[in-house]
Write a structure and sequence with these properties.
There is one protein chain. It is built from 16 helices and 11 strands. The chain is an alpha+beta fold. The protein has 2 domains: about 1-90 and about 110-225, no CATH class; about 235-460, Glutathione S-transferase Yfyf (Class Pi), Chain A, domain 2. It has a 5-stranded antiparallel sheet. A 4-stranded mixed sheet has the order 9-8-10-11. Strands 1-6 form a two-stranded antiparallel sheet. The longest helix is centred in the last third of the chain and has 27 residues, at about 330-360.
Length: about 475
């Protein structure tokens, strides 16, 4: 039986829906008190552990390297969500699909024997106002009456750590963690929940925790300031640039790390047009660039004695100039709808992307990530239901405007800003995968390191989109 506040439950459930898959915590506390004791307790999970929301968000990111998220169970009429995590030493089942994206850096992996540990834990997230009462079905919770919460002396774990027994009646969100299946971990092979078959130190050798990865990312960013930023394209983009290096009347002045330049480059490739690619350093403002665009911004194009800047304008020009492979629908209403959502990308998604890219504070990152995800969700809901692209089976200008930022979400934001991948099986994942795998997008994409190491070129600029880049 549960008592809950319906309004609080609804708002919390909506917040949980917007979280990236498997992400439970939205802040980082680098060095909290009694850290090692908490890590040992959350590693062993000898008994059901009850945590305030503050305790869970403080300490779980220090131990999440031990476990791997497997599933989440949501309920229509219960004020909680159940999250199931396996010990990481259990390993992934055979046949787990791997990315075939050639632009992604292949991590060095050492094969590890599977089923080295069978521990599974259940993390239950109780909404604000929920209270555990007799008959809830969890015998391991020794909460027999509300009076146990009202003691003036805070109860303690056996190891001296505080037990948040007053959390439920204070109307706050709280969490429980329990070991639900050790599959014979007690040594008898009888399916009774048992402890880990390895030490916490061994888990730390396998993977770093969220906090450790956060600290490493911050240190990496600090080091980048001390070394020159590489601006050379690589991978498929380098091969495409070489292919189009010969003199041609139609010239594209672009910077390989600029998403707005990549928009125009994708369109040229998609249309199969002949052109000359001119890699340009916009910070040096070379004469050729200033002649094509007096503002000195990339991208810019020149065709004979005519030139233009701004990616949106250039894309419209290319569409009118070459209809061999159209990127806009012929239906006027559908075309107007595409223009509406192109404006949404440029006016809402792009600023949200750069706000998150600039955010170094973990709390701000969570705030900006939610805003960015909300703007993406609105765009996805406007897309064709069947996909995989915005209008359906064929690439259009909406996809072209969006694609460079989708690429950078997985290469920059996921790496440095704790951005979550699209939830598997969703329309958003289908679209993101289609853009990642599109041959024209891949042909204009460098290896991941280029985008990570040139992020400061955007962050140190005065204008929202970068001082030397157009839109």
């Amino acid at each position: 039986m549960y008592i809950q506040s319906a309004q609080a439950n609804s708002s919390t459930a909506e917040a949980s829906e917007q979280r990236p898959h498997g992400q439970l915590v939205s802040r980082i506390v680098v060095d909290p008190p009694d850290l090692q004791a908490w890590r040992e307790k959350l590693f062993n999970v000898d008994d059901t552990i009850i945590l305030t929301n503050d305790q869970f968000e403080t300490y779980f990111p220090h131990i999440d390297n031990v476990y791997s998220h497997r599933s989440t169970q949501k309920y229509k009429r219960k004020p909680f969500i159940s999250h199931y995590w396996d010990c990481r030493m259990k390993g992934r089942p055979p046949g787990t699909p791997k990315s075939d994206d050639p632009s992604k850096k292949k991590r060095k992996r050492s094969a590890r024997e599977r089923d080295l540990c069978d521990v599974k834990i259940k993390i239950t997230e109780y909404f604000p106002g929920a209270t555990i009462l007799p008959g809830d079905g969890d015998a391991s919770l020794s909460l027999v009456s509300p009076s146990v919460y009202q003691t003036s002396q805070q109860q303690m774990f056996n190891d001296g750590l505080p037990r948040p027994m007053d959390a439920p009646v204070n109307g706050e969100r709280f969490w429980t963690i329990q070991r639900v299946n050790g599959n014979g971990g007690n040594g008898k092979g009888d399916g009774v929940a048992g402890p880990h078959k390895h030490s916490l130190a061994k888990s730390d050798e396998i993977k770093k925790s969220t906090v450790q990865r956060y600290i490493a990312a911050q240190e990496k960013e600090a080091k980048k300031i001390q070394k020159p930023l590489p601006r050379r394209m690589s991978g498929a983009a380098l091969a495409t640039a070489k292919k189009h290096s010969r003199e041609h009347e139609l010239k594209l002045y672009a910077a390989c790390f600029c998403p707005f330049s990549q928009r125009v480059w994708i369109a040229l490739e998609a249309k199969g047009m002949q052109y000359q690619y001119c890699e340009t350093d916009p910070f040096k403002r070379p004469t050729q660039l200033l002649e094509a665009n007096p503002r000195g911004l990339v991208p810019a194009i020149r065709e004979g004695d005519w030139a233009s800047g701004e990616s949106a304008i250039i894309l419209e020009y290319l569409e009118d100039h070459n209809q061999t492979v159209p990127l806009s629908p012929t239906d006027p209403r559908l075309k107007a709808n595409c223009r509406l959502w192109i404006d949404h990308i440029n006016a809402r998604i792009v600023p949200a992307f750069f706000a998150l890219a600039r955010a170094t504070d973990f709390a701000k990152q969570s705030e900006y990530a939610e805003k960015l995800q909300n703007e993406i969700t609105a765009l996805v809901q406007a897309a064709n239901d069947r996909g995989p692209y915005f209008l359906g089976e064929d690439l259009c200008l909406v996809d072209v405007h969006f694609a460079p930022f989708v690429l950078r979400m997985s290469r920059i934001l996921r790496e440095l800003r704790n951005w979550g991948d699209p939830v598997p099986g969703t329309r958003w994942q289908q679209w993101a995968d289609a853009l990642e795998q599109n041959p024209h997008v891949q042909a204009t994409t460098s290896q991941k390191e280029l985008y990570i190491e040139t992020l400061d070129l955007f962050l140190n600029s005065r204008q929202p989109h970068g001082e030397y880049f157009g839109s």
